[in-house]
Write a structure and sequence with these properties.
The protein has about 375 residues and is α/β, with parallel strands linked by helices. About 30% of the residues lie in helices and about 20% in strands. The chain has a single domain, classed as TIM Barrel. The protein has helices at about 1-10, 15, 25-35, 45, 60-65, 130-140, 160-170, 185, 190, 195-205, 225-235, 255-265, 285-290, 290-305; strands at about 85, 90, 95-100, 145-150, 175-180, 210-215, 240-245, 270-275, 315-320, 320-330, 335-340, 350-355. Helix 7 links the parallel strand 4 (about 145-150) and strand 5 (about 175-180). Helix 7 packs parallel to helix 10 (about 195-205).
């Protein structure tokens, strides 16, 4: 299929990259060291969205390695995923949700990825035995939904996606299944050209077991005719599309950019879902993380240009103790609330911390 050829043709090394992006010899040497640790992969389609005349192009910043990746402050597992892993490829942190890591590959490797420790690298954390995962979920009746993610499950063959869906749909207490994918953004032809995938998703999404797509638009320039066509195919198949973006320094840390993105998402039928605080990941934190204080005011300013549907999202951080909403600021305090909590004692908990204008994570606040 054509989309498979496009996936294989993606840029995977510096020699290919310099045909599209101007790099000095010094930059090439530096980036070569970086990609030995964390590989590069970019589809030609997504690369075409970069404005070569803009040295600070936001699309470029998200996918082209930079010297900021030499910085090792932070952690490779900021949300304690290892602690919540029940078997390779299956996590169970929140009672109602099981998370399946179906692959460690993506069509494009984002430089801010919070799973930088595994994407394009080791396969030891991904699911190897689907039947064992299904057995675990069947035993845990509190689980009413599954998030299939990775990596990006939509880089896998339709045959593998079909087998995964068929296995999960046999579990009676599941109400819905989500697929986390950036394919509509980075390789929309995967959806546009593969009728078998679209037919499978349409057939699998039922009144009592809906399929959801959680996609990942970060910037309004990612909303193109092709990405919109891919979204329309999914919506026409009866799927519900939610979007989660990450607040990223130098990419979208601007109220006008955020409001433009959220409004355009609603226009094409995508529900704004979360805006995530960038996690303090090694080789990510220094380059991309915006202080919480600044992030809060950026997002509140963006909301002034949003309507009811486009500001349904929550500004959250995926902390090791749970998904924490950044609620507001009063005087010298910043207020938070547990939107989801690993421990029941924290469920719905409302709390405050002293303001810091530089802190980027809960652990940095007093």
């Amino acid at each position: 299929m054509i989309w498979k050829e496009k996936l294989k043709k993606g840029i995977c090394n510096i020699e290919q990259l310099v045909k599209y992006i101007d790099l000095t010899k010094k930059e090439q040497i530096q980036l070569q060291k970086i990609i030995k640790k964390h590989p590069i992969k970019i589809t030609e389609y997504y690369l075409s969205l970069i404005d070569k005349n803009d040295p600070n192009d936001p699309i470029k910043k998200m996918v082209i390695p930079s010297i900021g990746e030499f910085d090792l402050s932070g952690s490779y597992d900021t949300s304690d995923e290892q602690k919540n892993t029940k078997m390779p490829g299956l996590q169970h942190k929140y009672a109602q949700t099981a998370l399946i890591l179906l692959t460690n590959r993506c069509s494009t490797y984002c430089r801010y990825c919070f799973r930088k420790r595994l994407v394009g690298l080791s396969k030891k954390e991904i699911l190897h035995k689907l039947n064992d995962a299904v057995k675990y979920i069947k035993k845990h009746h509190e689980i009413n939904n599954v998030l299939v993610t990775g990596g990006d499950p939509f880089v896998l063959s339709t045959k593998i996606i079909k087998r995964t869906l068929e296995s999960l749909l046999t579990i009676p207490h599941l109400n819905f299944i989500r697929f986390g994918t950036k394919i509509p953004v980075t390789l929309p032809d995967r959806i546009i050209e593969d009728k078998d995938l679209v037919d499978l998703l349409k057939k699998s999404s039922k009144k009592d077991k809906r399929l959801y797509i959680v996609t990942h638009f970060n910037h309004p320039r990612e909303i193109t005719k092709k990405s919109t066509d891919a979204i329309e195919k999914l919506i026409s198949s009866g799927l519900i599309i939610n979007n989660q973006m990450v607040l990223l320094k130098g990419v979208n840390d601007n109220a006008e950019i955020i409001s433009d993105l959220q409004n355009k998402l609603v226009e094409i039928g995508v529900n704004p879902y979360y805006i995530f605080q960038c996690r303090p990941v090694k080789r990510v934190k220094k380059t991309f993380q915006v202080p919480l204080y600044k992030g809060y005011y950026i997002i509140e300013k963006a909301k002034q240009n949003l309507h009811g549907l486009s500001k349904r999202f929550k500004y959250v951080m995926s902390h090791k103790t749970g998904k924490i909403e950044i609620v507001g600021i009063i005087n010298d305090d910043m207020y938070f609330k547990y939107h989801q909590a690993e421990s029941l004692k924290n469920s719905g908990k409302f709390f405050k911390k002293k303001i810091s204008k530089t802190a980027g994570w809960l652990d940095d606040l007093k």
